[in-house]
Design goal:
This protein is an alpha+beta fold and 166 residues long. It contains five helices and five strands, in the order βββββααααα. The protein has two domains: 52 residues; 103 residues, Up-down Bundle (Methane Monooxygenase Hydroxylase, Chain G, domain 1). It has a five-stranded antiparallel beta sheet. Strand 1 and strand 2 form a beta hairpin. Helix 1 crosses helix 4.
């Protein structure tokens, strides 16, 4: 069980601070179910998650793991969808993200960018949304692990991607 003051990575919300663990007001009739009260790092929204959730909730990267991921980023394989129809593309990238790890975020960012290198105007709105969200969550997690700003984490990620392309 995570404790108040700890950071976690929660599914589609990225890096979050555990503010407290308890029973929220809206669950007054059900005092058996305890919740994590999370605060999303990127937009400050509050999220209530049952402590026994089946949604992906994990500890964030350590500083060492973040540095290792940045070093390996250039070597991560690009995984492209087999077909270019919207449904197949979205299913492919959602499957890439399914492990809900920092590495799956990095591989998704790298794959979408690779697919649209030289022709970013051909990126669908859904791909652009997935790319931006994946970059935001990855940079947020790297920033938290390395105690740097999200912008500095983005610069480090970009450098790792460029270095890997050489």
């Amino acid at each position: 069980m995570y404790q108040p003051g700890e950071y976690v990575v929660y599914a589609e919300n990225g890096l979050c601070l555990v503010e407290q663990v308890g029973v929220p007001d809206f669950a007054a009739g059900n005092t058996q179910t305890r919740y994590y009260f999370l605060r999303a790092s990127d937009d400050g929204s509050r999220i209530y998650v049952p402590t026994d959730t089946h949604m992906p909730l994990r500890a964030p990267l350590t500083a060492q793991e973040a540095e290792e991921l940045l070093q390996r980023l250039g070597d991560l394989p690009v995984r492209l969808p087999e077909r270019r129809d919207r449904k197949t593309v979205l299913a492919h990238y959602q499957e890439l993200l399914r492990p809900h790890t920092a590495e799956s975020l990095a591989q998704t960012v790298k794959s979408i960018r690779y697919q649209h290198r030289g022709s970013p105007g051909r990126m669908s709105g859904a791909e652009e949304t997935l790319l931006k969200r994946s970059e935001r969550h990855l940079c947020g997690e790297l920033a938290g692990a390395l105690s740097i700003s999200a912008e500095d984490a983005r610069v480090r990620m970009e450098a790792a991607l460029v270095h890997g392309a050489e």
